[in-house]
Amino acid sequence: MINVTKSYLPDIEKYKAYIDEIYSSSWLTNNGPMVQRLELRLKEYLGVKNIILVSNGTIALDVAYKVLELKGEVITTPFSFVATTSSAVLAGLKPIFADIDKNSLNIDPQNIEKMISQNTCAILPVHVFANACEVEEIEEIAKKHNLKVIYDAAHAFDVEYKGESILKYGDISTLSFHATKLFHTIEGGAIITNDDELAKKIRYFINFGIKSATKIPYLGTNAKMNEFEAAMGLCILDDIEEIKNKRKAIIELYRKELEGIVKFQEQNINATQNYSYMPVIFESEEELLSVQKALNTQDIYPRRYFYPSLDTLEYIESKQDCSVSRDISKRVLCLPIFVGLEKNNQTNIIKIIKGDRD
Ligand SMILES: *Cc1c(COP(=O)(O)O)cnc(C)c1O
Q1: Residue whose CB lies within 8 A of the most ligand 1 atoms, among 4, 84, 131, for a mutation test
Q2: Is the CB of 56 under 6 A from ligand 1?
Q3: Cβ contact 107:125 at 8 Å
Q4: 358 C-alpha to center of ligand 1: Å?
Q5: For the segment 133-181, what is each residue's pLDDT rounded down to a tens digit?
Q6: Is 189 in the pocket of ligand 1 (CB under 6 A)?
Q7: Is the CB of 5 under 6 A from ligand 1?
Q8: Which H/E stretch holds residue 289?
Q9: Tens digits of residue pLDDT in 250-277
Q10: Which ligand 1 atom minimizes the distance to the CA of 84?
């Protein structure tokens, strides 16, 4: 069976060495040495000012909404994983969808401006499939209208925009380190901000607002990453260049062989890629379903990331015109890509996609 992805597992002996360390210290969680080490290494590797590790990418968003004290409407993209929208709804915010650009698949800045109202407090874009948003335009709009910006950068680990980390944009960027992501800690995530004061506030917030043994000056929650998760991250970070190179080769083969047969996401020319997803866009949903069926019969399971368009979710009341997202979400399929995907299996996937069209 071949799925859209397969979680990367590092060398077990290396992981065991970290586990031995955890056993000898009995320090399992609460900002332990593994979490501290991983934070330092990620800060350096990604080139960001403040990075706070948390227990998953969804809670990273939750924390961002809370520490920025958001209330009212957030303008977001309808083309993303459901967590972008559902987390906002659960935080008492009202998602207002601005339709995407049909080529980049990212929120279209021009549509953002149209959706701004007196109740808008923030913009919540997603670098979908790690394709960098038009961050400079978004920054300008936010400044002009005095809005906060939170980037759901769940996919955008290790992406650079004009030579610097894409995570530097916005008041906050969040990452997901879920097992299916490019870089993972089993479950996990991170919050990135350039603002040192905000970073401090986040550190208290993810640990119940506790300042010291007898001082609890703030409100807070539990969003901590544990030591076993951080140890996994330390192992995988050692291998990340190799992981990216292997994925790059897979993507290049897909792109070469499927050119002209399907459409690809248009990449931001000012940004690097991280080879995390291989979305392809078909002419029609019928064609997608037919290819999906052909692949499924051979035990190959691509995924319909992202379907349905989030503006059509049942618990969303406001209906904006997101015709581009509704259309794209019906026609986009993410093909299998992971370290260990064998060449003959990939060739077979390509053959089925090509063959199914004749
Ligand atoms: C994976 C993902 C999340 C959620 O991250 P978890 O770590 O699974 O909670 C949020 N947004 C996007 C766009 C994602 O792909």
Answers
A1: 84
A2: yes
A3: yes
A4: 37
A5: 999 999 999 999 999 999 999 999 999 999 999 999 999 999 999 999 9
A6: yes
A7: no
A8: helix 285-296
A9: 999 999 999 999 999 999 999 999 999 9
A10: 11
Tokens in use for 292?
Answer: 């999906």
pTM above 0.70, yes or no: yes
Residue 178 in contact with ligand 1 by CB distance below 6 A: yes
Amino acid 315: pLDDT: 94
CA distance 56 to 40: 18
Q: How far apart are CA 325 and CA 334, in angstroms?
A: 16
Is the previous residue joined to 308 through a cis bond, with omega within 30 degrees of 0? yes
pLDDT digits (tens, 9 = 90+) for 106-139: 999 999 999 999 999 999 999 999 999 999 999 9
Strand partners, 150: 172
Q: Is 152 in the pocket of ligand 1 (CB under 6 A)?
A: yes
Q: How many CB atoms lie within 10 A of CB 330?
A: 18
> How many angstroms from the chain centroid is the CA of residue 215?
35
Cα–Cα distance measured from residue 71 to residue 60, given in angstroms and rounded to the nearest whole number: 17
